[in-house]
Amino acid sequence: MRRAYLSAAVAVLGVVAYLVLPRWWGGAVPAVAVTPQDLVRTVVATGRVEAPHRVDVGSTLVGTVARVPVAEGQTVAAGAVLIELDDRELRASLRAAEGAVAQAQARVRQLQEVQRPVAAQALRQAQATLETTRAQQRRQEELFRQGYVGQAALDEARRAAELADAQVAAARQQLDTTLAGGSDEAVALTTLAQAQANAEAARARLQHATVTAPVAGVLISRDVEPGDVVQPGKTLMVLSPTGETQLVVQFDEKNLGLLAAGQRALASADAFADQRFAAEVVYISPGVDAQRGSVEVKLQVAQPPAYLRQNMTVSVDVEVARRNRVLAVPLDWVHDADTSQPWVLKRVDGRAQRQAVTLGLRGGGRVEVMDGLKAGDELAPSGVREGARLGPHAGP
């Protein structure tokens, strides 16, 4: 039994010597040289893909849906047909309105081509009759002075001249109503304008029976089917315009002081985690969600990848700070890193010796050393104890 215990003890001592003694005497643990490098700090959060605005599509008419030629998720061009209503009644109304326009136009032509020339001719005839009756009146007056005719004949000639004069005045007035600015022309033109307005309104109603896409985009919602009776003001479809894409992300409020508009970010959709795309912070909510303890941040995606879809879940790394060409070491090499007196193990005369340092920016598992080290100093990696022997730097 003693011999067995002795063999076991020797074996344990052998393992301990293999693991520990090289750290004290053999230089088996190489030191690592500190070199300048770029250090970036990021904050991470998740959110969703959203368009900056969405377009609600509906009908301005009451009608029955005849056809819906698009499906949810489909990309449509501006002006593409989204919904068609039964337009038979509207087409009949348009034909009636166009008939009224044609009738009003015919009335204007009749006034200009028939009524006006006839009125002008009637005026000329009345003027000729007036000249004849006035000549007869003058002859009767002469004969009356000579005693050849009596007073009755003279009075008859005078009445005929007065009647002809009145007929000239009436004919002139009738002609004036048919001329430009006259009452008959004004009535005809007003009737024509009203008929044309009614036709335009009927044509517009007919056009509204076909609902088209106001902008190009992706149809993210469809709530209408053929046979449905639609009403004005009801949203039937929701269109997400193409172009600008935003990421709406909820960041922990503890990071609010680190975030600023214009900061760059890298994002990835959970469905395509290995494909990252660039984004930029464009909006930080002025308020904090008290229930979730978060702040809403919007990021603009200048060149969204083709696979990006509305409401996709995304992960976002926002670059909140950057230091170029600074001394940085792995954070796990720093002892008491969260206290006011952090330190590292520096290679001095071949041994790990404590060295106080001043820390700065942290990011990506590394931390900036602002004071206490210089480029080329060699440090002990994590797991090495103070006083252990360190081999020289073993590579770049």
Automatic annotation (TrEMBL):
It is found in: Periplasm. Residues 94-212 form a coiled coil. Transmembrane segments: none annotated. Keywords: Coiled coil, Periplasm, Signal. Its main location: periplasm. Residues 248-318 form the CusB-like beta-barrel domain. PANTHER family: EFFLUX SYSTEM COMPONENT YKNX-RELATED, UPF0194 MEMBRANE PROTEIN YBHG. Belongs to the UPF0194 family. Belongs to the membrane fusion protein (MFP) (TC 8.A.1) family. This is Efflux RND transporter periplasmic adaptor subunit. It comes from Pelomonas baiyunensis.
